[in-house]
Structures are given as structure tokens and as C-alpha cells.
Structures
1.
Amino acid sequence: MSMLNIILFGPPGAGKGTQSEKIIEKYDLFHISTGDLFRKHMGEGTDLGKLAQEYIDEGNLVPDELVIKMVKVKIQSHENAKGFIFDGFPRTVAQAVALDEMLTSQGLNISGMLALEVEDEELRSRIRLRGKTSGRADDQNDERINNRIKIYKQETLPVADHYAMKGKYHGINGTGSIDEIFNHICMVIDLIK
Ligand code: AMP
């Protein structure tokens, strides 16, 4: 049986974390959320956490080199997984190229990109709401939130084209109930797996 490797894509606040949890449970995939990994490093005060903190707090991207190295270690230490779900990664075309190379070198590939599509205004209000409980510095003010959305458009959206050109892009309406969105995701996964 081939591995199921999914990229869960979308702007900040699109619901990637929420849907990832449900996907992992149903399909038994290994979750790689670069945002969660960085927050763990920051919480533990590791060297990587210290390097990443300033970028993250301001809503800027952490340099590719650091992100790619961190993901490589995770993939290599879970070679026996049934598959991976990449959440919040890749966020630049350079990261996408590096991911494709990492997988190819192990005889693997990306099964598909599932892209949650949500309007900007809805994203802002979801992030502001999350900010009340997340404790995340980057959820706390409109300037940082707007910066993240701007960077998503400039740096991250081209990653969707990268996978669209390979016929791997699957758009999912990211508004509606959590279960409606999840059902749509499952339909797509069952088609590509
Ligand atoms: P997230 O939890 O996915 O919203 O990520 C939170 C923050 O971590 C982002 O705003 C970035 O500062 C940083 N980050 C997470 N993933 C990446 C990535 N793939 N490339 C660069 N920075 C990232």
C-alpha cells in the first residue's frame, strides 16, 4: 500500500489545525505542523525556538533553511508512518521544492494538496477570536494579523500553483460547519488515496 501524504493548505485562520486533528484520527497519518513544532521549541527555550521567536511573534516567516531542516528530521524519524499530513508547510516555493526532493529521495511523493478557501474578513475575525484564548502573540493585534495574511498572499499562494501544475490541487470551501468541511475533505482523500 502506498503512503498517503497530504498537504493541508490555506491562509492563517482557515481551520488547518482543526481539520488536521480529524484527518489524523480517521486516516492514521503522522501530523507535521511546523507552527506547532516551532511553538514547542519556543516553549522549551531551545536554540531553534530562540531563533524563530522574533519572526513568529511579528507574523513573519521563519527562514526556509530552519524550517526545512526541522521537517527533514521529523520525516526521517517517522519512516514507518502510514503517511504524513503537512500543516502550515510548505509556505514558500523553496520549501515545496525541498519537500518534493525529500520525498522523492525516499521513493515517496505528495498525494495531493487540500486547500481550505476562506475570505479575508472571515479569517481576521476567526484569528481575533482565537487570540482570546490561544495566548499566541501573533494572534493578538490587527497589524500582525494583516501582516500574516499579506505574507500568505505574497509568499505562500505560489505554492498552490506549484502543486496545481502537477494536477494535485484540490480546493475545499473552508466556510460552513466543521463537519461539513471535514466531509468534503474525506471525499477528496478517498478519491486520491
Ligand atoms: P501557524 O501555526 O502555521 O500559523 O504558524 C505560526 C507561525 O510560525 C507563522 O506565522 C510563521 O511565523 C511560523 N511558521 C510556521 N510554519 C512555517 C513555515 N512553513 N515557514 C516559515 N514560517 C513558518
2.
Amino acid sequence: MTHTLPEIDAAAIETAARILRAGRLVAFPTETVYGLGANALDPDAVARIYAVKGRPPTSPLIVHVASIEMAQSLVTTWPDAAHRLAHRFWPGPLTLVLDKKPTIPAIVTAGLPTVGLRMPAHPIALALIRAAGVPLAAPSANRFTQLSPTTADHVRRSLGSDVDYILDGGPCHVGIESTVLSLAGPQPVLLRPGGISRPELEAVIGPVVSAAEITTEAHPAPGMHPRHYSPQTPLLLVTNGEVPDRGNGIYLQYLHLPSRADLAVIEMPLSAADYAAAFYDTLHTADRAGRDWIAVDTPPDTPEWEAVQDRLRRAASDS
Ligand code: AMP
Ligand code: MG
């Protein structure tokens, strides 16, 4: 897939940086989704993120940095695995969870002793962090449990005037959230599948276990809210094009032919990367169509599809 880099508007970056330094919120593009950013070192600014999103305070935020050195300055240890992964995948869609220094306020990490760090692969995001001169705490720029935004228009529709400034960098080219990997324990743990696949991680650091393999009811993975990334319209995962025979729906077709002739159909891209890039924008469009249901053909069950499968399962869950 090809994509062109957005122009950087230096005056807009400077305005946004000033707003951040004043403790206010700026929505900015990254390669994954749009983030709702605040100065990560200012607890009052970070509190505004939780208020605007309606996000429970138990859900930790990712801290965005502009360099490996900035990441190292925020943690107490920088293990060899972090060194190798950061050199291989940063800037990029990989969040590393490490033991934090006290300079990161507790509100950023929901009280956890660890912090999730990532260097985004987007020139506007990097320019903004550098201009602000501080790391930026940023979850996705949408209300809690709603679909993630992959365009500035999605951000406007979700947050409206509750966000102080929006930097528009066009559509996000990865289109799905970062992979979250914990390096804080004895073994690397995949907390959330995302833009970097498990086989890509394992090629650099060896075996990675997934959170589901080691979590229990007493020790859930932090921030793993089951219903997340959901459209308002009920979303159904289907196989072989077998959509419901009742009501008026829209079908996100993968390889199968729809079983009903009267259906609105959106053809999805065949590669996992192109599917992910189109994913949220297609769900926003399907949701706005105001149908009774959105049926989505289940994509292949292979490692490169793990992140898309995860988001689809969450979007389909009504718990
Ligand atoms: P998002 O709302 O997309 O920014 O989600 C942030 C993700 O990062 C969630 O899945 C969190 O569980 C994860 N995360 C951030 N910080 C930490 C941390 N300190 N420990 C574990 N997971 C974290
Ligand atoms: Mg989110």
C-alpha cells in the first residue's frame, strides 16, 4: 500500500504545542488512529482527557515520545528486549510497557507502576511532541467505547468542541491501534494485538505469550475492557456470507458472496494491512447508514489478522 506524507504546517504545530503547554487538549494524527493528547507530566491536563472521553480512571493511557532517549528518560529500566524492539519498530505501532519513573503522574497509568510508551510513525505527531517539549499522554480521540477515529472528521463528530484543537493529517495509514507489549515482567506479554504482528515481535525477541494465556479473574490484564471500538448499530460476525434474514442490514464482504440479493454491500480489502487501514472508516460509514445491523464476514484465522480479529470480536460483543 502506498500513502503520501501530509504537509507539516509549522504555525499549526506551534499553536498546538502552546495549547498543550497550557494544560489543554490537542487531537493529533498518528499512523494508527487519531490521539487525544495532553502533557503527560501534567496531572490536571491528563485528568481532562479522562473527563472528555468519559473514560474510566482504571484504563491507563499510552505516552507518546519523539525519540528513544525520551522514552528512556521516563522509565527505571530499559531492558535489552526494549532496546532491540525500539530499534526495529520505532517509530511505529508498538507500545512497550515498562517500569515508570515517578515523573509520570499516577493518573496517566491508572495507578500502575508501569507506563506504556510509543514513538508514533507520523511526521505531525513527532513534530508536535518535539515542539511541546514534553511526552504526550494520548488515548484514541473518541468517547469511551465508541469507534476509534482515523480521520479528523471522525474526531470532530465524536468530541466536537470538547477538544481544544485538532491537527488534521488526513487518514491514518495503519488504521488500527498499536500492539501493546509488556516487558515489565519475567516474560514478554502481548496485552493487545495491533499494528505489529506477534510473528514480527517473535522474530526479534523470541516467544511472546498473550495476556489471555496468563490472566486469571484475580489478575486481569489492565485496561482490557471487553466492549470497546463499537459502532452504535449491532455488529454481527458471520461466516460464508450467511447474514440474518430479518431486517435491513449492511454487509462488509470479505471473500463470500452475500446470501441475499437486496443487501447493501461494502467490499473489504483482501490483505490484512489494507483491511486494517479501511476498518474504522468503513465501520463509521456503515454505522451512519442507520441500518438494523452490520454483518461482517469473518476474515482468515491467521497471525497477520490477529489485530483485526480482536477489534471485530470487541465490536461485536454486547456485554
Ligand atoms: P488506547 O485507549 O487505545 O490508547 O488503549 C491503551 C492501551 O494500552 C490499553 O489496551 C491499555 O491496556 C494499554 N496500556 C497502557 N498503559 C499500560 C500499562 N501501564 N500497563 C498495561 N497496559 C497498558
Ligand atoms: Mg481507544
